[in-house]
Structures are given as C-alpha cells and as structure tokens.
Amino acid sequence: MIKYSRLKIGGDVMANIYLDYAATSRKHFDIIEKNLNILKEIYANPSSGHTLGKKNAKLARESREKIANFINATSEEIIFTSGGTESNNTVFNHVLSRFNSGEVIISSIEHPSVKSSAKHLEKYGFKIHELDVDETGSINIDELEEKINENTVLISIMLANNETGVLNPIKEISELIVDKDILLHSDIVQAFGKVEIDVKELGLDFASVSAHKIGSLNNFGFLYAKNGDVEPFILGGGQENGLRSGTSDLLGTLILADCTEETLSSIPKLRELKNYFISKLEQSGIEFEVNGSVKNSLPNILNIYFKNIEAQRLITYLDAQSIYISGGSACSSGNIKGSRIITEMYNIERAAHSVRISVGFDITKDDIDEVIAKIDKLEKRLIERN
Length: 386
Description:
Elements: E1 7-9, E2 12-14, E3 17-18, H1 29-41, H2 51-70, E4 78-81, H3 84-98, E5 103-107, H4 112-122, E6 127-131, H5 141-147, E7 152-156, H6 170-176, E8 183-187, H7 199-202, E9 206-210, E10 221-225, H8 250-265, H9 267-284, E11 288-290, E12 301-306, H10 311-319, E13 323-324, H11 340-345, H12 348-351, E14 354-358, H13 365-385
Parallel strand pairs: 3-13, 5-6, 5-7, 7-8, 8-9
Antiparallel strand pairs: 1-2, 4-10, 9-10, 11-12, 12-14
Helix pairs in contact: 1-8, 2-8, 3-4, 9-13
C-alpha cells in the first residue's frame, strides 16, 4: 500500500494530509499498476472471438463475479456503467419506461443526480415527494409510511449520506413495502466498501456505485439491478447483456474488484481513526459538535461543527498548509454559504461553521494529531482577536 509523500515547497516540508476521501479517494496505484501489467500482455477487446479476447473475457467474468459476491448479488445483476450518476439516471429512466405515471419518494439529502432525475420525471406527470431528515441526518420512517400509497412506483433513498456518513434505514423501508408493487433504489456510492452490504437482505431492486470513492478509476462504476431487470439507458452494441452498450472497460473492472477487497479489509482501521479524531478533539478543548450520528454512520466520515471557526476560514487556513478538508459534497463545490445538507439538518448558521473530514487508507494517527494541533492554534488565535 502506498503512503503518499509530503510536499516540499521551497525549503519547507508541507503536511500533504488528505482528509477529503468522501469527495474522491486517493488512488491505489499499486493495484492499478498490477492490473496495467496484466493488460500489457492481454490487451484485446473482451468481446472479440479470438484467443486474446477470450482470455480477457475470462478475466472480466471472474472480476464481475467477485464484485457481485461483495454485495451478495449474481454476476448477471451487475451492470457496469460510468459511475453513480449514470446508474442513478438509469433507474429513473427505467421508471419512465415502465410506468405511464405514478409517485416517487426521495429524501432531501439525495445526490443531485437523483434529485435532478426525479425533477425530470415531473415533466411526464409523475408526482415527487421529498422527505426531510432530522438532526441525526436520517429520514423518518413514519413520514415515509405516510407518503406511500397505491400510486407509489419508486422509493429512492441513499444508504449513507455524502456529507455526514449517516446511514438510512433501508432494510426497514424494504420491510414496509415487501407486499407492495414498489421499486426500491438506493444510491450506495458513499457506503460501498465502507460497510458490509447485502442487497438481498436490504431488499433492494437497484443500487448505484462509483469506483473512484474507493481508490479505483474515475468514470467507472456499476448498477445492481435485481434479476438483471432494467430498461437500457445507453443503446448500441449490446454489451452488459444488452443493458448498457459501450466497449467493456476491462481495466476498470479488474481494478474495482481489487480495490473493493482492499477497502473492505480496512474498515476497522478507518473506524479506529475516526474515533481517534473525536477523542483528540475532546482532549484539545476545541469547541465542537459532531453533526449527525457517530454510531449510525460510515467508519470514515465526520461532519464537525466548530463553534468559533467559520468553515471557509478553516478550509483556507488548512489548505495553505497542505491539509485538505471540505465544506461539503464535491458535487456542489464552490458553495461557501454552507452545506445544503447541514442546513437541512440544522440551520444555515451551523452549516457555515461545519466541515467534512473523511479519512482513508494512508492516514495515520500522527496526521490527525498534526491537524488537530493546527485547528487548536487557529481557534485560539480567533478567540484572542475577539
């Protein structure tokens, strides 16, 4: 496993501590290089009928089965896509293709690709219900149950929120609709690889994944579709059993399979680092609160409210010292008014003082000590000025 080096700027050695894994993970270049070397020898299109093509088709098949096993799916239920956004769009296109009208339920904290897709359905007469979240960052099951009726065709609720890491009760949702003709989709992009996921136990019809969140390649991912039942969104040469056309990305498939295994094995370390971060903050005397639930959340994401430090000031201060955190989802980058998600959970004032810190495979306790020391220094300076 690679440990990223520190940056040397002029005569100073800078921290180069990356705590924005929730936006995108640093790459597992050792895994990428290993699989690149494989394809240097076997470089054919997996759809080709000659010997090289058949060898690559075998590699692709084995990696697909490995990925399917990670979520207790079959290989026929895994449809490789360009990532979470395409996978989410495919699900809503499926609904548009299969139903003339109906009602769809999402949450207020969904990824923009889900919210935009839901908005698109409104143009065709579908009614969209948007659930609020409470201060833990999770939806209210009772509110969801009130929205479900005979016209409901789809419920789309993310498994883990991008900004807080808080987990939603997907299994409870599936139990509510077990006897109803309602599709259940979950954007599991942030959760995949960070928690054990069993799509059968969760009762999902669809689940969306992006590879770049776990150190694999950008512009790659997959859609889980129960029994492989989904309307094609991208048409062409009939790859992915006719469900998603486009030349197969063998490299992406191989790397994703290996990165998933690597990330799942690191869950205990990530949880330990997260807990360590909280305990060191408590020991430092810095005034802070965790946004959302600590226990019911992913092992690598913390969203923290700093009472005495504005988010943008903290981000800029740490950035100047090569320490990288964020104010929220990278899909909404450039927003310095405060996170939409934290505003939904609390208020705009708290959002303006909240940042997201997400650990990954190369972070150490020494890194965390250094970051907290710098936050403590900034808070003391701001308090003295006031």
